[in-house]
Automatic annotation (TrEMBL), chain A:
Residue stretches of biased makeup (Polar residues): 143-163
Keyword entries, A-Z: Membrane, Transmembrane, Transmembrane helix
InterPro entries: CDC50/LEM3_fam
Biased composition (Low complexity): 1-21
TM spans (from-to): 49-71, 309-331
Protein family: Belongs to the CDC50/LEM3 family.
Protein name as annotated: ALA-interacting subunit
Signal sequence range: none
Span list, region Disordered: 1-32, 140-163
Subcellular localization(s) per the UniProt record: Membrane
Organism expressing this protein natively: Penstemon davidsonii
From TrEMBL, chain B:
Residues in P-type ATPase C-terminal domain copies: 1039-1279
Segments for region (Disordered): 1-27
Protein name stated in the entry: Phospholipid-transporting ATPase
Organism the protein comes from: Penstemon davidsonii
Similarity annotation: Belongs to the cation transport ATPase (P-type) (TC 3.A.3) family. Type IV subfamily.
UniProt KW Transmembrane keyword: yes
């Protein structure tokens, strides 16, 4: 058991090979590769390794968890659902009918700031039950068309919102653009002052610069019998239609937020904000809900305790496991590589 | 009939039209046999030419002769023959069958008296072919097709007489004019440059796997189903097609190369008037070819003439049937004369269509208006070598693909590995999962549509209708709820396609290719003697090598070197040990010895043996003591009592005695039995050189003195008497009987000598010899008085001419003189075991592999070899079953069973201690008798020794009695055999070997491996799960049929214990990992699809989905599958028991599969839900999410793999980390193309810390259970491999870091 010859002796055959330079010998050439003797690291699960792995994980995870949790706690978030509230009481039985009618859909809501919020404060709209990730929907766009004016006719993938009745292409075509969100929000503080919303820079820079053409202008958009959502100003190129750009980054999940704009003033705790909103977007036909979200941000993103809690849990669990294994190794040690544990030594009486 | 044309008599009886005249013929021939053997008066008239005649008669005779052996086969065999007649032949053909038997004998060296062994071999072969034929008819469903195929090889020689092949000698144009005979170009390759692409594609699409890809790709082309982009969906198919095509192309290129070498060899061909070199591929049927000595035949030829006036040519058929002894072939006298005169021959040969039976050839030749038959003895086959004949001229009858050699070298049919079979079972499970998942998606889709039916028209993310372009109200890709549901089902199949790990098949092939590369390159499996590397001929069953439970080994040439050497002699009670070199005293004694060896210098033998000095001295003493005479008689007996033929080369022996010492004449002893050759060579070394043998006398050079001895009679060796004797008359008119035989049969017929010390001493020596594994023979002699001689001669003549019971009578005759013998001594011959064989067998047995030796040798030899290679040990209890009849066999078998069945338990236990046996279900169910446990005497481990004819009864019985299970012989045999530690089967015919393998294969789940070197092992090699051919002494036939080929038996140890183990571990892990890897990905997609209104959206980009299994994660699996090793070869060789891991199916089994699947489920949930919770109610877009998932799953599976890697080499690091980097690279590239909607995603993501935190979280949470499980398993249930690994690694570390530093924490 203990007298295994060292592996360095494996070089032996190689030298023998060198001494016999027969031309047509089929003797395999010696190399550490062909003989599968390359220097190798052979990790085994020694108690030291196991315990230090668990400790390492817990030492990394617990601080990260704490930091994340704090970061998430620092985020102040105001979430306000308005899909029902912004329907006049008499229309609440027929929300779809109301939203499709030409009535004034202005609606004023008030929000109270629970904590100090320092700028930038992000304004999101959140939709529920809207499957932006539906296969029919996701594919219904034409990126060629969005990029350059020459590709306006590339509407093959845009059905059923590809061309107008006369056959001229819709720019931007497809269901995604067609269903562009069209609620609008205006914020005023309680003292009557406007809280400006910056709608610049809410989309990805790369999208603005490369994906949406600087000289592609909307045309024939929302001209059909069925209006899906917002109209676009035909004099502004697509690369500056940031709402569209944001909208067209389709969301991964049926509940999603999209950036509406940024408020670049600090808000104090207890401030009351009046929101004047146009409740235009029809989510009622599919029981979708709409929410207005004002949120500060941290290095981690929005308010989400999950990461912090998960890290803390895993870190704690690993720490616990480290202790368990220390105990196990202390209570029931097994000498590693002890041949007496080999199955044929362990139960000589057969199975 | 024959009297009309005396010249043709040699083969006349062969073509005799009916059996009756034939019998007359054979009775006639007996007289001439007498002439050959003993009656000097008759033999004087025997000329060389009639010798041929005798040979065949001898066959006839000997066939009748050995009734005890063959006779028992007969009853079964006769009806068999009838069956043949009725079934296969037209009514007018009976003689053909007869002849077929004869020619079988004729294949064996026809010069000599054919031994019982071969005849019984031939007839058992025939009868076993009958067995399988009847099997064929009864259509037993259990038998494998393969086996039938093998037996068919013997069947399809029934020629198609209606359509003969016409060969115009020396007129290839005319020959090939009418018929389109194939040229001599051989082609084993499948493709040419031009047809490679179409043909390869055609062949590839025969695989179901590729059709699956094709179907998926086709599905994706349908508009409602287009999940992926059209071109992207073709990518997997293209990938596998390309990889396979490259692999096939490479293999075929190698075949092309070897074909080219073969085709470009050259031979002398008559064109048009002189012999000039011509490439083999240009040779055509009808051409006349001249072969010089030691050259190889380019095609099948009918001999026209040879350098020998009698038209004899010696050939070595090693490449064809693996037999290394020379065989004689004859040119017809008619043509030989013409050839020697130098006349141009032109005639027509009418022969049968090409067939693959190398033991038969029927044709006739029309020459100058005469017609005469040609037979097996007139044809030389491609691949044979001409030996001892200066040249031979023949006409090509079969060329190229038509040659028997080529017809026999059928492609080794592809085998499928055991693990792959299991894998398919699990693949079925995966298909079930796939189906369930698709059904869920489809049902969900249906329900969702139903629920939103009213909203579908306007639902922004669905929009069933067009509103515009004049197609108002027209539906957009909507076919109603049922159809949508169905389409959803199909498209989910497309999305989940990699759940069925089709690419695994390709991965496995690549991995096996890599494994083969390392096996081939293993320096420890290189045989420098034959300069041969290990060869992998089959790429499908590498991992089977790790699970072998039974090894069936041929003996001669496989375990042994097939080189007999005279080792020791016991003469007159004194032991002379040849093995010791002349001890130290190299001074004056050396000169003396050289003097003593004066006589010997004249003769140069192929294999020199150093004579024992003591014995040499004794031989040259002049004193006439008893001992001296005994020694003389001893060596005379060795030189005379045999059937060896000396072939003199060097100086022509026609001249007078050579006076010059410096011209040694080299003698080549050609003999049936290598033992006899060794004995004759030994006699020569001690001064008794046999250098001439004719039918009536032999001439021996006894220390320079020429001794002519008349051979009065010869009683051949047979298996009943187990001895042979010659009666010779010395020049001084004394007559002696010289007998040699097996000790068991000899001691009973010795003279009752009161002075028994010689006998005792010899016995003692014999025991000593056989315990050393030497093959022993006892030599004795007796003087015959005049009356005894006359009495014997009368009886002998009577017996040998008798028509009935001849063999019994001959035996009686022999008994008359084989009595009252004087013991001279004993010989010990070593059939040298190959290097390392005992160690290899020992290791294999420790590894829990049962080694069965199947040999054509006789029982005694088999046992002695068994002893010497440590297969049999002294403490083993031998069960010998060698019945001569059905009943006897049955009795022996049941006796043995009754006797030892009480012992089965202890035996099993025994085996378990030794072999870590896993109780196998089959075994216990087949051994109901085991329950009967008594307190009987305990025996040691059992060894079963069974002979071929008994096997015939047993195997045949099984087939006959298939309706009822009255005598479930095979079952009993199987029980007995599996409960024995060792099984030795002696005197088995090739098909029986296959039958035995089949018996085990059919009744257990255990893996079998057959190893052999000769053509007689081919059927066995093909039958076994793994066939290994030895490319040693005997030809390439076995290699051609094998899956693996190597130089020496001892490599088997390394092949199984090291490479088999590695391969098994690697492939087992590879398969599980691949299942996991694909499933985790698919399941991740599945969870997401549940969040997308069942719309089979994939968050991943098309390219990433496709690349996942072919690019992102494929390389590490392949690298790990090729390079990972759990244990070093040293450890594996040191602890053969580690091999049992393969027997226990440790690295691949059902429970491992389910554990892996459970792990997979957890990991997929983690993969999906961690990002889901992290990015709940956030602005995350679908491509960012997809990007996150892509990278997370790639990292996860790679780290999962990394956790299981046992040995990290540089390449592994490259592969694992490299593939993560490559994935990132690919994603960066994909996200840098502005045309894709996902443009810029990765850049955006990488800036976000959440992204990184999520990946880390996924990896850790995903792998935590697995890691914990591993650690727990490691602590509480360590496997053998783990422990050995720890021992190996820790020991090495300690060496490096000193003793204390890396002390294990306890």
């Amino acid at each position: 058991m203990n007298s295994n010859t060292p592996s360095s002796s494996a070089g032996g055959p190689g030298s023998a090979d060198a001494t016999a330079p027969r031309r047509n010998s089929k003797r395999p050439k010696y190399s550490r590769f062909t003989q599968q003797e390359l220097p190798a690291c052979k990790p085994i699960l020694t108690p030291k390794w196991v315990i230090s792995t668990f400790l390492l994980v817990s030492f990394i995870f617990i601080p990260i968890g704490i930091v994340s949790l704090f970061a998430s706690r620092d985020v102040v978030e105001i979430v306000h659902g308005y899909e029902t509230e912004c329907i006049p009481l008499n229309s609440r039985n027929d929300k779809v009918g109301f939203i499709q009618s030409d009535q004034d859909k202005t609606c004023i809501r008030t929000l109270t700031v629970p904590k100090d919020m320092s700028q930038p404060i992000y304004v999101y709209y959140q939709l529920d039950n809207f499957y932006q990730n539906h296969r029919r929907y996701v594919r219904s766009r034409s990126d060629q068309q969005l990029r350059s004016p020459g590709n306006a006719r590339e509407t093959g993938s845009c059905s059923p919102e590809d061309t107008t009745v006369s056959g001229t292409p819709i720019v931007p075509c497809g269901l995604i653009a067609w269903s562009l969100f069209n609620d609008t929000y205006h914020f005023t503080s309680n003292n009557g002052g406007q809280i400006p919303i910056n709608k610049r820079g809410i989309s990805w820079q790369s999208d603005r610069e490369r994906k949406f053409g600087r000289n592609v202008y909307p045309s024939n958009f929302q001209n059909g019998t069925l209006i899906g959502g917002a109209r676009l100003n035909e004099s502004i190129p697509l690369s500056e239609q940031e709402d569209l750009i944001v909208w067209m980054r389709t969301a991964a999940l049926p509940t999603f937020r999209k950036l509406y704009g940024k408020i670049e003033v600090n808000l104090r705790q207890g401030d009351v904000i009046n929101v004047t909103l146009q409740n235009n977007y029809n989510t009622y036909s599919f029981n979708g809900r709409k929410k207005l979200v004002l949120s500060t941000t941290s290095w981690l993103g929005g308010k989400n305790d999950f990461v912090g809690i998960a890290y803390l849990t895993v870190g704690g669990l690993c720490f616990f496991l480290a202790i368990v294994f220390v105990l196990i190794y202390l209570i029931k040690p097994r000498q590693l590589g002890d041949p007496s544990y080999l199955s044929w030594n362990r139960n000589p009486g057969g199975h | 009939m024959s009297s009309a044309k005396p010249l043709l008599s040699q083969s006349e009886h062969l073509s005799a039209p009916c059996p009756h005249p034939h019998h007359r013929q054979s009775s006639l021939s007996i007289t001439s046999l007498g002439g050959l053997c003993h009656t000097a008066s008759v033999s004087s008239s025997v000329t060389d030419e009639t010798q041929d005649n005798n040979l065949y008669d001898l066959k006839e005779e000997s066939e009748e002769d050995f009734d005890p052996v063959v006779g028992a086969v007969r009853p079964a065999f006769r009806p068999a023959r009838k069956q043949f007649l009725s079934a296969e032949l037209q009514p007018q053909c009976p003689p053909r069958v007869r002849k077929r038997l004869v020619s079988w004998g004729g294949v064996m060296d026809p010069w000599h008296n054919v031994k019982a062994l071969e005849i019984s071999g031939a007839s058992t072969r025939a009868s076993s072919s009958l067995v399988h034929e009847s099997l064929n008819k009864s259509q037993r469903p259990r038998r494998s097709e393969r086996f039938l195929q093998i037996s068919m090889q013997l069947e399809d020689n029934i020629a198609h007489h209606d359509n003969p092949r016409l060969i115009h000698i020396n007129d290839p144009k005319k020959t090939n004019d009418k018929f389109d005979f194939s040229g001599n170009e051989i082609r084993t390759s499948k493709y040419t440059f031009l047809n490679f692409l179409p043909k390869n594609l055609f062949i590839q699409f025969h695989r179901v796997a590729y059709l699956y890809f094709l179907a998926i790709a086709a599905l994706n082309q349908l508009p409602p189903l287009a999940v992926f982009g059209r071109t992207v969906s073709l990518f997997p198919l293209l990938f596998v097609l390309t990889v396979t095509a490259v692999k096939d192309g490479y293999e075929d290129w190698r075949r092309h190369r070897s074909d080219r070498n073969e085709n470009n060899r050259e031979s002398l061909v008559l064109q048009p008037d002189e012999f000039s070199l011509k490439r083999w591929k240009k040779i055509q049927a009808g051409e006349v070819v001249k072969i010089n000595s030691d050259e190889t035949m380019p095609c099948d030829m009918v001999l026209l003439g040879t350098s020998d006036p009698s038209g004899i040519a010696y050939i070595q058929t090693m490449n064809l049937d693996g037999e290394s002894n020379l065989k004689t072939r004859y040119a017809r006298q008619e043509t030989n004369k013409l050839v020697l005169e130098g006349t141009r021959i032109s005639g027509v040969i009418k022969c049968e269509q090409p067939n693959r039976n190398i033991y038969e050839f029927t044709a006739n030749m029309e020459l100058n208006g005469h017609r005469f038959p040609l037979s097996q003895s007139n044809i030389i086959l491609r691949g044979c070598q001409l030996k001892n004949t200066e040249w031979a001229i023949g006409v090509v009858v079969y060329a190229g693909q038509d040659t028997k050699a080529m017809l026999n070298s059928a492609m080794s049919s592809s085998k499928r590995s055991r693990l792959e079979t299991y894998m398919n079972r699990e693949t079925l499970w995966l298909s079930v999962f796939l189906l369930i998942m698709c059904l869920i998606v489809a049902t969900g889709m249906g329900l969702w549509l139903k629920r939103h039916e009213t909203q579908l028209d306007t639902l922004p993310f669905y929009r069933k209708l067009y509103f515009g372009q004049g197609k108002e109200g027209k539906k957009y890709k909507y076919y109603g709820i049922p159809m949508e549901t169905f389409f959803s089902f199909l498209s989910s199949i497309i999305v989940f396609q990699i759940m069925i790990p089709i690419s695994l098949y390709i991965t496995m092939e690549l991995v096996r290719l890599g494994q083969s590369y390392f096996m081939i390159g293993d320096m420890h499996m290189y045989d420098s003697n034959t300069n041969s590397r290990f060869q992998c001929r089959s790429l499908n069953i590498n991992e089977d090598l790790g699970q072998i439970r039974y090894v069936f080994s041929d003996k001669t040439g496989t375990l042994t070197e097939n080189k007999m050497e005279f080792r020791k002699a016991s003469i007159w009670g004194k032991n002379y040990d040849n093995t010791l070199p002349m001890a130290g005293s190299l001074g004056d004694t050396n000169v003396e010895v050289e003097d003593l060896m004066f006589g010997r210098r004249k003769w140069k033998l192929k294999s020199e043996i150093t004579p024992d000095f003591e014995l040499m001295k004794l031989m040259h003493k002049d004193l006439y003591g008893e001992e001296r005479i005994a020694a003389r008689d001893f060596f005379l007996a060795l030189a005379a009592c045999n059937t060896v033929i000396p072939i003199l080369t060097g100086c022509p022996s026609s001249g007078t005695d050579h006076t010059l010492d410096d011209i040694p004449i080299s003698i080549n002893y050609q003999g049936e039995s290598p033992d006899e050759q060794a004995l004759v060579a030994a006699a020569s070394a001690y001064g008794y050189t046999l250098f001439e043998r004719t039918s009536g006398h032999i001439v021996i050079d006894a220390n320079g003195e020429k001794l002519r001895l008349d051979v009065l009679g010869l009683h051949e060796f047979d298996s009943v008497r187990k001895r042979m004797s010659v009666i010779i008359r010395f020049p001084d008119d004394t007559v002696k009987v010289l007998v040699k035989g097996a000790d068991t049969s000899m001691f009973s017929i010795l003279k009752d000598n009161p002075d028994d010390h010689i006998r005792n001493a010899t016995l003692c020596h014999l025991n000593e010899y056989s315990s050393e594994g030497l093959r022993t023979l006892v030599v004795a002699s007796r003087d015959l008085t005049g009356e005894q001689l006359v009495e014997w001669q009368n009886m002998y003549e009577d017996a040998s001419t008798s028509l009935t019971d001849r063999s019994a009578k001959l035996r009686q005759t022999a008994a008359l003189i084989e009595c009252n013998l004087t013991l001279l001594g004993a010989t010990a011959i070593e059939d040298k075991l190959q290097e390392g064989v005992p160690e290899a067998i020992e290791s294999l047995r420790q590894a829990g592999i049962k080694v069965w030796v199947l040999t054509g040798d006789k029982q005694e030899t088999a046992i002695s070899i068994g002893l010497s290679c440590r297969l049999l040990t002294a403490d083993m209890h031998q069960i010998i079953i060698n019945g001569n009849s059905d009943e006897e066999c049955r009795k022996l078998l049941y006796d043995a069973k009754a006797k030892y069945s009480v012992n089965f338990d202890s035996c099993e236990e025994n085996a378990e201690i030794d072999y870590l046996e896993v109780p196998s279900k089959t075994k216990s169910s087949n051994l109901p008798e085991r329950a009967v446990k008594e307190d009987g005497p305990t025996f040691g481990p059992l060894a079963l020794i069974i002979d071929g004819s008994s096997l015939v009864y047993i195997l045949e019985k099984d087939l006959e009695s298939e309706a009822c299970i009255i005598s479930n012989f095979v079952l009993v045999l199987f029980d007995l055999a599996t409960s024995c530690k060792v099984v030795l089967c002696c005197r088995v015919a090739p098909l029986q070997k296959a039958g035995i393998v089949d018996m085990i294969k059919g009744r257990t789940d255990d893996m079998t491996l057959a190893i052999g070197d000769g053509a007689n092992d081919v059927s066995m090699i093909q039958m076994a799960d793994v066939g290994v051919g030895l490319s040693g002494q005997e030809g390439r036939q076995a290699v051609m049929a094998s899956d693996f080929a190597m130089g020496q038996f001892r490599f088997l140890k390394r092949l199984l214990l090291v490479h088999g183990h590695w391969n098994y571990q690697r492939i087992g892990y590879l398969v599980l990992y691949n299942f996991y890897r694909n499933a985790v990905f698919v399941l991740m997609l599945f969870w997401y699809i549940l969040c997308t209104a069942f719309s089979t959206t994939s968050a991943l980009t098309d390219l990433s989905s496709v690349f996942y299994s072919v690019l992102y994660t494929s390389v590490p699996t392949i690298v790990v599958g090729i390079l990972d090793k759990d244990l070093s070869h040293k450890t594996l060789l040191k602890y053969p028991k580690l091999y049992a891991a393969g027997h226990r199916q440790e690295s691949y089994n059902m429970s491992l599969f389910w554990i892996t699947m459970a792990d997979m489920l957890w990991q997929s949930l983690v993969l999906f839900y961690v990002p889901l919770f992290t990015y709940k109610e956030s602005t995350i877009d679908i491509w960012s999410m997809g990007s996150l998932w892509t990278i997370a799953v790639v990292i996860l599976v790679n780290i999962h793999l990394a956790m299981d890697i046992k040995r990290w080499v540089f390449i592994t690091h490259c592969a694992i980390w490299g593939s993560i980097i490559v994935t990132y690279g690919c994603m960066v590239v994909i996200d840098s193309i502005p045309v894709f909607p996902n443009y810029g995603t990765i850049y955006h993501l990488m800036k976000s810390p959440t992204y990184w935190l999520t990946i880390l979280l996924i990896t850790v949470i995903g792998l935590l259970p697995r890691f914990i499980f591993k650690v727990f398993h490691h602590i509480f249930w360590p496997s053998d491999i783990q422990i050995a690994r720890e021992a190996e690694v820790l020991r090495k570390r300690r060496r490096f870091f000193g003793s204390k530093k890396d002390r294990v924490l306890i």
